[in-house]
Amino acid sequence: MSEPKFTIRSDGQFGADIGALDAAIEFNETNKFFILEITGWCPKERKAEGAKIDKKYPLKETTTKKYNQAIEQNIQDSDGTLILLLEGNNADKETNYAIEKAIDFNKPSKTIILSKDSQENIKNINQTLNWLKDTKIEHLNVKGPRESNTSGIGEKTHSFILDLLKEISKDPDFFKK
């Protein structure tokens, strides 16, 4: 099999992070022409808000149960971080930490506000595609709030990332290294 040409990375927290991983898994199940790697770091013992992250997500465990270690490792191991927020909601503590760490590590980051308006989300996808191309990101970390802090963020993220991957797959040169 060929080497992966694009990577989606996340820490697997319930909400935006799982939404991104689920979209990547769905994309891989339905698209046979592009290879998408799915990975990320999660806290030791696959800790996620009082539960465990399902083994179906191909995540590696950090050495501690602290969320911040997984957040930092994912930022360091990626080319850039996409922060997804839901219109009318603020970032939570972990999302703000990711924004700060991307700056500290001098890694590109982009924040997108997911809208209830589908036309606005098309603009958001186009902005994200342009950002990915301009910054030459092939290994994307996705971060956003937990579902417990922002109801609906997981579903909105899933839809956005799936649409983004479908758009990327329309351009055969997008994945070329």
UniProtKB/TrEMBL annotation:
This is Molybdenum cofactor carrier. It comes from Gigaspora margarita.
